[in-house]
C-alpha cells in the first residue's frame, strides 16, 4: 500500500468515527448500546384482587362462602404486606446484596376490576387510589388514564406495589406528552423498562405528578369555545342547510361574527390544523387517549400541529369557510372517535 492510499484509508476511518455519539461517557463504548433492564410481563399473570377490604368470615352464610371470603381476605392482606415489603427494599442501600433481602414482595403487580358498591368508595378515581394506598401518578400513568373520568366500571386496573411514574414508550394523550417532555432528561439507558402485554413503560421510581401534571389531570370539565352562547343548530339529526336532506349533525353550531376569538374548550395537544370542503379551515385538539374536540369553518387558525394549549386559550378566529351558509363556529366533541353531544360536556351550558 503506497502512502497516498494509506492517507485515504486513515481519513475514511476518521470520518466514520466522527459520526459516532457516545450518549453516556460513564459507560465504556464497545460499539453496541448499553444494556437496558427490560422486565417482560403479562397482565394475565398478575394477582387478581377481588375485594379490596377485609370481610369477617362470620358474615358467611355457608361453608363455601366462608372459604371464598377467606381467599379474598388473603389476597387483599398480601397486597398490603407487599406494599410494605417494597418500601423496606426501596430504603435499603443501593449496594445491598440482593441475596440477603429476606422479605421480598410475593408479587410486584396486582390487578382489580372496577365495581360499584353501596359504600361508593370504588365509584371514583379518588376512592380507588385512596383505598389501594397508591399514588395518583402511579395509578394514572400505569393505566394510561388522562383524567379521573377515564375510570369506568368494569375496567381492569393494574396496581404495582412500587410507587413512581410509568411513561409509555409511545405516548398517545396530551397528558402523556406533557409527562414525557417534563421527564425526558431523566430517562436514560439505565432506566428500568416494564413491558406489559407488548407495551413498554419507562419507570421512574418515587416520582409523582408535578403541580402542572396534577392540575392538567384534574382539569375535567369543558368550557364554551366562544364568549357568547348563541346556538343556531343543535346536535343530532336535522335538515341540512346545504343539501336540504335529513342528515346527522355531529356537533353544534354557534353563531358569531367573522374574526371572533375561538377558545380551547379544555387543555390539550393540537393534532390537526387543516382544510377540507366540508369543515373549511379547522383545528382538532386531543384531550385524552379517547377524547378530541373539533373547531370548524374558521377564518384563521392561530395554533400549529403539536402545540400544547390550555383551557380558554385562543386557538382560532371564526369564519365561514367550507360548507357554510354564514359566519359561525361548528364545534364537535368525540369520544373513541364517536361524536357526542358537546352540551353535555360543557360546564353550566
Provide a descriptive summary of the structure in words.
The protein is an alpha+beta fold. Helices cover 21% and strands 28% of the residues. It has six helices and 19 strands. The strands form four sheets. Strands 8, 11, 12, 13, 14, 15, 16, 17, 18 and 19 form a ten-stranded antiparallel β-sheet that branches. The protein has a four-stranded mixed β-sheet with strand order 1-6-7-5. Strands 2-3-4 form a three-stranded mixed β-sheet. β6 and β7 form a beta hairpin. The longest helix is centred in the first third of the chain and has 28 residues, at 63-90. It starts with a helix and ends in a 9-residue tail after the last strand.
N- to C-terminal separation?
A: 84 Å
Order of helices and strands: HEEHEHHEEHEEHEEEEEEEEEEEE
Low-confidence stretches: 1-31
- Fraction of helical residues: 10-25%
Helix/sheet category: alpha+beta
**Mind summarizing the main beta sheet?**
10 strands, antiparallel
Query: What characteristic shape results from the CA principal axes?
Result: elongated
What is the overall pLDDT average? 84
Strand content: 25-35%
Number of strands: 19
* Helical run tally: 6
Radius of gyration: 27 Å
Amino acid at each position: 500500500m503506497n502512502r497516498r492510499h494509506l492517507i485515504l484509508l486513515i481519513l475514511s476511518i476518521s470520518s466514520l468515527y466522527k459520526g459516532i455519539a457516545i450518549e453516556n461517557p460513564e459507560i465504556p463504548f464497545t460499539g453496541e448500546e448499553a444494556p437496558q433492564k427490560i422486565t417482560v410481563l403479562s397482565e394475565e399473570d398478575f394477582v387478581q384482587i377481588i375485594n379490596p377490604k377485609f370481610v369477617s368470615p362470620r358474615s358467611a352464610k355457608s361453608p363455601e362462602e366462608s372459604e371464598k371470603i377467606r381467599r379474598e381476605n388473603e389476597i387483599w392482606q398480601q397486597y398490603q404486606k407487599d406494599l410494605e415489603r417494597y418500601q423496606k427494599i426501596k430504603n435499603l442501600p443501593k449496594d445491598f446484596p440482593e441475596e440477603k433481602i429476606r422479605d421480598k414482595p410475593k408479587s410486584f403487580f396486582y390487578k382489580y376490576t372496577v365495581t360499584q358498591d353501596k359504600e361508593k368508595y370504588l365509584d371514583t378515581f379518588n376512592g380507588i387510589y385512596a383505598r389501594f394506598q397508591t399514588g395518583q401518578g402511579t395509578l394514572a400513568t400505569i393505566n394510561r388514564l388522562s383524567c379521573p373520568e377515564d375510570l369506568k366500571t368494569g375496567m381492569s386496573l393494574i396496581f404495582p406495589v412500587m410507587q413512581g411514574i410509568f411513561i409509555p414508550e409511545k405516548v398517545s394523550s396530551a397528558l402523556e406528552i406533557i409527562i414525557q417532555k417534563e421527564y425526558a432528561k431523566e430517562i436514560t439507558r439505565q432506566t428500568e423498562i416494564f413491558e406489559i402485554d407488548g407495551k413498554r413503560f419507562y419507570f421512574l421510581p418515587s416520582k409523582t405528578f408535578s403541580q402542572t401534571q396534577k392540575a392538567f389531570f384534574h382539569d375535567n370539565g369543558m368550557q364554551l369555545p366562544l364568549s357568547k352562547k348563541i346556538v343556531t343548530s343543535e346536535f343530532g339529526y336535522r335538515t341540512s342547510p346545504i343539501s336540504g336532506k335529513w342528515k346527522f349533525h355531529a356537533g353544534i353550531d354557534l353563531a358569531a361574527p367573522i374574526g371572533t376569538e375561538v377558545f380551547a374548550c379544555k387543555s390539550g395537544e393540537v393534532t390537526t390544523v387543516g382544510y377540507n370542503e366540508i369543515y373549511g379551515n379547522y383545528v382538532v385538539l386531543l384531550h385524552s387517549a379517547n377524547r378530541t374536540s373539533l373547531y370548524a369553518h374558521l377564518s384563521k387558525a392561530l395554533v400549529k400541529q403539536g402545540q400544547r394549549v390550555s383551557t380558554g386559550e385562543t386557538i382560532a378566529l371564526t369564519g365561514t369557510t367550507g360548507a357554510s351558509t354564514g359566519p359561525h363556529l361548528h364545534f364537535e366533541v368525540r369520544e373513541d372517535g364517536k361524536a357526542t353531544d358537546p352540551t353535555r360536556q360543557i360546564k353550566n351550558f
